[in-house]
Amino acid sequence: MIPRCHFYLSSSFAVFLVFTLLFANVVGCSSHKAGPDHNTDAYANEAQIDATGDNRRIAVVISTLNNPWFVVLGESARDRALELGYEATMFDSQNDASKEAAHFDNVIAADYEAIIFNPTDADGSVANVKRAKKAGIPVFCIDREINSTDTATAQLLSDNFSGCVELGKYFVEQVGKKGNYVELLGLVGDNNTWNRSKGFHSVVDRYEGLKMVAQQPADFDRNKALEVMESMLQSHDDISAVFCGNDAMAMGAYQALLGAGKAAQVKIFGYDGSADVVQAIADEKITATVMQYPKLMAIEAAEFAHEYLANGKRDFPQKIPVNVDLVSAENIDEFVGFGKKN
């Protein structure tokens, strides 16, 4: 039988012990570093790596959260970072270069250890990435690239040119080799805008009977696309199709055509694979889009950041192309918003 051990404390010693424990607890709490105040544009979601309080943080800086596709992109990166044990905070640049620069100021000052970055501008965002690199913070660009070699640690980019080559071929199949069409461009400072347009025109421009009667930026924005499309229809009411550089603009164009009573006559082509356009294809309102996979891109970027921080990996390819797929009535059953069905 194991003997019981009885401990008896004098009242004075007990009081001393209580005060000692209380003091140690106060010192321990006061020595813990508090995180910085979160920017009002940030989505803060944090998790500790371990019980020691040694937190490691990843910032997810997204060009805009005014588009569901980019919300999925940012949330997927953030959530994967959380799963890997990091604190993760998402920042919304609102397609504003000055807001983006302010986010980088805050992230660098707060000693974040990695940045998953969706730039606002291919040229204008380079300076921000350079500042992070100088501070020793790796930057992993997703979806949108910067025009600088070896500044970002890696850039994960959809194969926009090839995707729009396939879309251009399908455009010709659906519209025919004759007819007028218009194009809604994205942000002029974003390489995706031009890579998509170039891929599309590399096919469509071979057919002299297909004439682009208007081309105008709508900044990847649904509301602006609605306005631009309404204006185009006043001058060009005989169009057969509209090519849009993303799905948000495709939905804006559809609303304009619906209001003009032309939604059934004009074929609409988008790019992204957003949930509303995938459904609109199923409903025969939009003709086709190209599925780029925001969840896959974002998750891979978070895993790259983890490999960099936890495993010391440094030899990342500078540009990593991510495959895309044409989505149309012929294969719509294979897809859901932002990806393929499981």
UniProtKB/TrEMBL annotation:
GO terms for cellular component: cell envelope. It is found in: Cell envelope. InterPro entries: Peripla_BP_I, SBP_2_dom. Keywords: Signal. One of its GO terms (molecular function) is carbohydrate binding. Gene3D superfamilies: 3.40.50.2300. Residues 1-24 form the signal peptide. Residues 58-312 form the Periplasmic binding protein domain. Belongs to the bacterial solute-binding protein 2 family. This is D-ribose-binding periplasmic protein. It comes from Bythopirellula polymerisocia.
